[in-house]
C-alpha cells in the first residue's frame, strides 16, 4: 500500500458521517404523543382544579417545545448555536413586550 492509498483511506474514515437511525425519532414521537395525551386527559377530567390544569398544560407545552426543537428541528446537533441564540433573543423581546403591555394596561 502506497502513502497516497493510506492517506485516501484515512480521509474516508475522517469524513464518514454518523447516521442517526429512526430509533431516537420513534422514541421522541412516542414521548410527544404521551405529553399530548396527558394534556388532553387533564382537560377532559372535569373535576381537576383549574389552576392545576393550567400549570400542567403550561409544563406540557414547554416540554413539547424542547422536544420539538431538540429532535425534530435538530437544534441539539453541533453548529446550531446561532439559530438558538436568535430564538432566545426573540423570546426575550416578545416576553418583554408582553410584560410591558400588561404593565401599561393594568397600572
TrEMBL record:
Pfam families: COX4_pro. GO terms for molecular function: cytochrome bo3 ubiquinol oxidase activity; proton transmembrane transporter activity. The chain crosses the membrane at residues 26-45, 51-72, 84-106. GO terms for biological process: aerobic electron transport chain; electron transport coupled proton transport. Its main location: membrane. It is a multi-pass membrane protein. The keyword Transmembrane applies. Keywords: Cell membrane, Membrane, Transmembrane, Transmembrane helix. GO terms for cellular component: cytochrome o ubiquinol oxidase complex; plasma membrane. It is found in: Cell membrane. Belongs to the cytochrome c oxidase bacterial subunit 4 family. This is Cytochrome C oxidase subunit IV family protein.
Amino acid at each position: 500500500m502506497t502513502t497516497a492509498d493510506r492517506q485516501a483511506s484515512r480521509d474516508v474514515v475522517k469524513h464518514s458521517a454518523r447516521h442517526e437511525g429512526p430509533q431516537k425519532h420513534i422514541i421522541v414521537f412516542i414521548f410527544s404523543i404521551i405529553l399530548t395525551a396527558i394534556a388532553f386527559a387533564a382537560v377532559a377530567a372535569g373535576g381537576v382544579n383549574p389552576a392545576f390544569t393550567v400549570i400542567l398544560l403550561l409544563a406540557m407545552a414547554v416540554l413539547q417545545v424542547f422536544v420539538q426543537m431538540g429532535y425534530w428541528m435538530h437544534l441539539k446537533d453541533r453548529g446550531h448555536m446561532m439559530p438558538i441564540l436568535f430564538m432566545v433573543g426573540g423570546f426575550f423581546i416578545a416576553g418583554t413586550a408582553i410584560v410591558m403591555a400588561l404593565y401599561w394596561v393594568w397600572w
